[in-house]
Design a protein that fits this description.
By secondary structure, this protein is an alpha/beta fold. It has a single domain, classed as NAD(P)-binding Rossmann-like Domain (Rossmann fold, 3-Layer(aba) Sandwich). The chain has a seven-stranded parallel beta sheet, sandwiched between helices. The longest helix has 27 residues. The chain is globular, with a radius of gyration of 17 Å. It binds NADP nicotinamide-adenine-dinucleotide phosphate (NAP). NADP nicotinamide-adenine-dinucleotide phosphate binds next to helix 1 and strand 5.
C-alpha cells in the first residue's frame, strides 16, 4: 500500500477533509498523527490513530508540539487545518482578533511547522509536506479577504519553500494542494457542485502517491486552465 508504515501528521483531523485524510491514511497502513484543538474532537477516530491536541493559533502550544515532534520520526506532514471568517471591512465588520486568528491558523502555523519539521522530514527518504491551499489563492472572493490573502500567502510560501528544499538537495517533496469546493462545516450553506470530503482526501493522497508537487483537485483543474488563459476571467468567476 502507498502509505504503509509511513508516519504522517494531519492537522485539522477532527472533521471535514482532514478527518477523511486521517481515515484513508489509516486504512492504507500509515501511522497517523491526527491533530485538532482538543482531543475530545478526535475521540471517535478509530483506535490506532494517535491523537494530538494543539491550538495551532497559539504560539506556545505550537512550539511545544514542534519540540515534541522533533524527537520523533516523521515521513509526512499535511497542513490541512484552516478557518474561514466572513468579514466586511467596508462596513467596519472586521475585528482584529479574527484577523489574527485566521492568519495564525492558515498561514503562520504551516510556516512554523515547516521551519521546525523540515529537518525531521529530511531524515526520512521519500518524505513530503503538503500545504492545503485553495482556488482562492489565485484570485479572491469578496466575502473573505483575510482567508483569501492567507491562502495566496500559503501558496507563495509553499513555492519558495520548494525552491529552497530543491536547491539544498533535501529529499522532501513540498506540495501545494489546490483544494476544490468540498461539503464540510467550512462551506455549510453555500456553494454548489461540492465534492465529498472523502473524494477531496482521495484526490490529495493520489497526488502525493503519484509524486506530484502541485495537486489540483476536481474542478480546480479547469480553474487552472482558465487562469492560464485569462487571470481576469478567473478573478470575475471567483469574485462572488
Ligand atoms: N471545504 C472546502 O471547500 C475547501 C476549499 C478549499 C480549501 N479548503 C481548505 O481545506 C482545509 C480543510 O478544510 P475543511 O473544509 O475540511 O474545514 P473544516 O471542516 O471546517 O475543518 C477544519 C479543521 O481545522 C481544525 N482547526 C481549526 N482551527 C484550529 C486551530 N486553531 N488549531 C488546530 N486545528 C484547528 C478543526 O479542528 P477543531 O475545530 O476540532 O479544533 C478542523 O479539524 C482548510 O485548510 C481549508 O481552507 C477547503
Amino acid at each position: 500500500m502507498r502509505f504503509d508504515g509511513r508516519r504522517i501528521l494531519v492537522t485539522g483531523a477532527s472533521r471535514g477533509i482532514g478527518r477523511a485524510l486521517a481515515l484513508q491514511l489509516a486504512v492504507e497502513g500509515a501511522e497517523v498523527l491526527a491533530l485538532a484543538r482538543t482531543s475530545e474532537a478526535l475521540d471517535d477516530l478509530p483506535e490506532g490513530i494517535e491523537r494530538l491536541a494543539c491550538d495551532l493559533a497559539g504560539t506556545r502550544a505550537r512550539s511545544a508540539l514542534i519540540a515534541e515532534l522533533q524527537g520523533q520520526r516523521l515521513d509526512g506532514v499535511i497542513n490541512n487545518a484552516g478557518i474561514q471568517i466572513a468579514a466586511d471591512f467596508a462596513k467596519g465588520a472586521a475585528d482584529a482578533q479574527g484577523i489574527e486568528q485566521e492568519l495564525a491558523v492558515n498561514l503562520t502555523a504551516p510556516m512554523h511547522l515547516a521551519a521546525g519539521l523540515l529537518p525531521v522530514l529530511a531524515c526520512s527518504p521519500g518524505s513530503f509536506l503538503v500545504n492545503v491551499t485553495s482556488g482562492l489563492a489565485l484570485a479572491p472572493k469578496r466575502q473573505a479577504p483575510v482567508y483569501c490573502a492567507s491562502k495566496a500567502g500559503l501558496r507563495s510560501f509553499t513555492w519558495a519553500l520548494r525552491y529552497q528544499a530543491e536547491d539544498a538537495g533535501l529529499r522532501v517533496r513540498i506540495i501545494d494542494c489546490v483544494m476544490a469546493l468540498a461539503a464540510t462545516q467550512m462551506t455549510a450553506g453555500r456553494g454548489r457542485g461540492k465534492i465529498s470530503p472523502k473524494a477531496a482526501a482521495a484526490a490529495l493522497l493520489d497526488g502525493v502517491a503519484a509524486g506530484n508537487s502541485e495537486i489540483w483537485v476536481g474542478q480546480m483543474k479547469l480553474l487552472r486552465l482558465i487562469h492560464r488563459l485569462s487571470p481576469e476571467l478567473t478573478a470575475r468567476i471567483l469574485r462572488g
